[in-house]
Description:
By secondary structure, this protein is mainly alpha-helical.
Amino acid sequence: MKNSITRLLLFFIAIPLIFVLILAVPFFHHIGVNIIVILISAIGASELGTMYAKRGYDINTIIAPIIGAAVPLSTYLEIVGLIPQQSQFFIIIVLVYFLFFRQIFIQHTSDLVKIMPRLATSLTILFYPGLFLSFIVRMSTLPHPSLLYVLFAVMVFLNDSTAWLFGVLWGGKSKAGILVSMNKSIIGFFGGIVGSIGAATIMYYLFPQLMPVPYLLVAAFSIVIGAATIMGDLVESAIKRSAEVKDSGNIIPGRGGILDSIDSLLFSAPLFYIFFAMITG
Length: 281
């Protein structure tokens, strides 16, 4: 019941607020949306670092949010012209160098065996969730960015909601048997796909200028986005299972951490951006 109430609150309160932010503050390449994306990336990286720490990996709590925000922040600064084009690649390379070079200055002999896990965890935090979220920032450079942000939000959140609803109503005997998320069902998976297709179909006919391609291509695109959305949720579930935690954090009452709320966005954002960059470029 508590989970149901949380989802309903998200759908009827949080999502409309997101739409208001998207439509009311389109200035400077949707600065409101992108500031939130950068902050979310920093917090999400911090949560990931905390989960790594629970497994005994040494993560610097100051460095984690900084490198987590680096990719989406540099993306936005490049888009608005505050740094030269292609500067983002330079920033990423510098951060990678930093993460490697800081291992040279270890203080104790016992730390030598921790170099490989430190590098693996630090590099993961640099790109997850930051790299994936940076594609949400990049959406502001595409034609009709406000409509694209609305479409992306609806496709992802409707996928999540319909997957849950189909699973609750009809998924009891169709468990997918996925070890990292035993409650996921085949019916729920197809329900999520239906949600993504439905959202794209409505926007396709309401705003034909948004997707100037045949409808069959839009349907295929929706299936890919729906599957990526579900995969994002499963990947975050796998990380939490490995860390032996129920939630990535507790910043959102009744919901958990930031990563718990954005996991569905992460794998779908790059594909969404690339698709629209291709059909409008």
